[in-house]
Amino acid sequence: MSETATLSLGDRSYELPVSVGTEGECAIDIRELRGRTGYITLDPGYANTGSCLSDITFIDGDRGVLRYRGIPIEQFGSDPNFVEVAWLLIFGRLPSPEEYRCFAADLTAHANLDEGMKYHFEGFPRSAPPMAILSAMINALSCFYPEYLELEDDVTFRMMAARLISKIRTIAAYSYRHSKGQPYIYPDPKLRYVPNLLHMMFSQPYVEYECEDVVRDALNLVLILHADHEQNCSTSTVRMVGSSQANLFASCAAGVCALWGPLHGGANVEVLRMLEDIHRGNVTPEDYVRRAKSKDSRARLMGFGHRVYKSFDPRAKMLSVVAERLLMTLGKPDPLLDIARKLEEIALEDPYFVERKLYPNVDFYSGIVLRAIGIPINMFTVMFAIGRLPGWIAHWWKQIRTQPGRINRPRQIYTGNGLTDYVPMAERESNVG
Ligand code: SDX
Fold first, then answer.
1. What is the pLDDT of residues 323-378, one digit of tens each?
2. Rounded alpha-carbon distances, angstroms, from residue 29 to 49, 176, 315, 404
């Protein structure tokens, strides 16, 4: 007999089904609530609301657990391979050697952009925010691959997903090259996913960028740790847009826009700016923490806190180690890492943060890793988007197959004017003071 929840409204009681997840999470299923009671629920920000059943990613925020298709993220650390994890998230299992080879070959074959897309880059100011370009150019793919706008079958989906995962690198690299006034560097079919991205960003004509193994592994792991995070703001945006049967390019372009916000993916930029501000001596770590605690200031300790993690974000733990190892191997000590550690030490001993269960999140150390690789701060959130893309695709594809033809459309409680008559302009009193 499955568990139920009893809801009492006035003199009536209603039994509502309870849904229980693989790891014992429980939800009251309210799909029939309005039809049976006339009531809806209210949950601004959706902190208590599940939008779907999902078998893609599991997070236990109290225990600091993150698993992709059941595999703990810590197990991807030894030989990080972002392409393999992308397949796992999208298709639900680790690829066979042959499946991996075919997928990697598809990514290699479809790394180039249509030459016509270059004119779009030329139209942007060099100072244009890379996230604006990324969203625009992902959407522009809809114009160059109209055959993918009507999703027919699994084969079409696989080709569309492979093209998008491959081309997002080229779009990101070209936006960086345009911002520097440098020539575009074509993808090199001899290079694997991450080295090819860095090649397109940093090679010069006739001077190849050499990707060191420690850099290749660090960036693969950064992308893996950003690859999915269940129903976060940007993934929920991709699902919302996809529920209207908008194509994958349009849905992921919307996800880029949601990720851009400083409370979400944009936080990795704000963390670096915070660390640099302290490094320049404009403010001490102690003063910054004091400012972040003050109700009078809008300042927050960027890279700290999380809607789900109420203990350490396991990604922050791994990225902290990656940062230390990378800087040591490259022989490039970074004072910002010491400042980050100092901020973490102060905050984790401060009752304000302890009581609110505010710990470092994925953004706290990721920027230090990206900076060590030579990626400019304005490209940090673009790297987050490249990492998150497989998660967006996985959730988009899952939603299409599990709730076909059902648009996502939340309700509201109206608190505005009651019935009000229109007043012709001539009869309105002037309110010019
Ligand atoms: C990501 O959802 C995901 O999974 C996101 C993500 C993913 O992989 O997709 O994990 C990626 O977006 C990580 C988060 C990156 N953002 C930041 O680092 C920005 C700083 N963090 C905060 O803005 C905040 O912690 C959020 C946005 C991350 C979470 O906000 P919540 O859950 O809405 O928490 P809240 O704003 O209700 O805060 C609760 C309390 C408040 O104080 P009181 O009103 O109780 O007195 O904690 C305080 C907040 O003021 N607080 C902070 C704080 N974060 C929360 N105070 C100072 N510094 C902070 N960072």
1. 999 999 999 999 999 999 999 999 999 999 999 999 999 999 999 999 999 999 99
2. 10, 46, 31, 20
DSSP result, 378-410 = GGHHHHHHHHHHHHHHHHHHHHHHHSTT-----
Reading the block at residue 268, the tokens are: 């990795």
Give distance in angstroms: CA of 127 to centre of ligand 1. 29
Alpha carbon distance 74, 63 (integer Å)? 14
* Mutation to probe ligand 1, out of 232, 306, 308, 381 (largest number of atoms < 8 A from CB): 306
Cite the DSSP H helix spans in 145-247.
154-180, 193-202, 213-225, 233-242
DSSP class of residue 319 equals H
| 327: helix, strand or coil | helix
| Distances from the Cα of 224 to the Cα of 41, 94, 272, 295, angstroms | 36, 14, 21, 36
Which one, of 145, 193, 143, lies nearest residue 172 by Cα?
193
Buried b vs exposed e over 188-197: b needs ≥16 C-beta within 10 Å? beebbbbbbb
Q: How far is the CA of 132 from the centre of ligand 1 (A)?
A: 24
List the structure tokens of 382.
């673009």
Q: Based on the residue annotation, tell me whether 395 is a catalytic residue of this protein.
A: no
Exactly one of 178, 229, 306, 395 is catalytic; name it.
Answer: 306
Give the Cα separation of 11 and 179 in Å (integer).
66
User: What's the 274 CA to ligand 1 centre distance in angstroms?
Assistant: 16
Give burial (CB, 10 Å; 0-12/13-18/19+) of 57.
buried
The 3-state DSSP class for residue 341 equals: helix
Clarify whether 313 is annotated catalytic: no
Q: Pocket around ligand 1: residues whose beta carbon is below 6 Å from it?
A: 229, 232-233, 263-265, 267, 292, 300-308, 356, 358, 361-363
Quickly state the pLDDT bin for 232 (edges 50, 70, 90).
very high
The per-residue pLDDT for 433 is 61
Q: What is the C-alpha radius of gyration for the chain, rounded to an integer number of angstroms?
A: 24
Tokens 């009581």: give the residue: 355
> What six digits make up the tokens of 245?
């049967």
Instruction: Tell how far the Cα of 70 is from the centroid of ligand 1, in angstroms.
Output: 26
Three-class SS state of 337: helix
| This prediction's pTM | 0.95
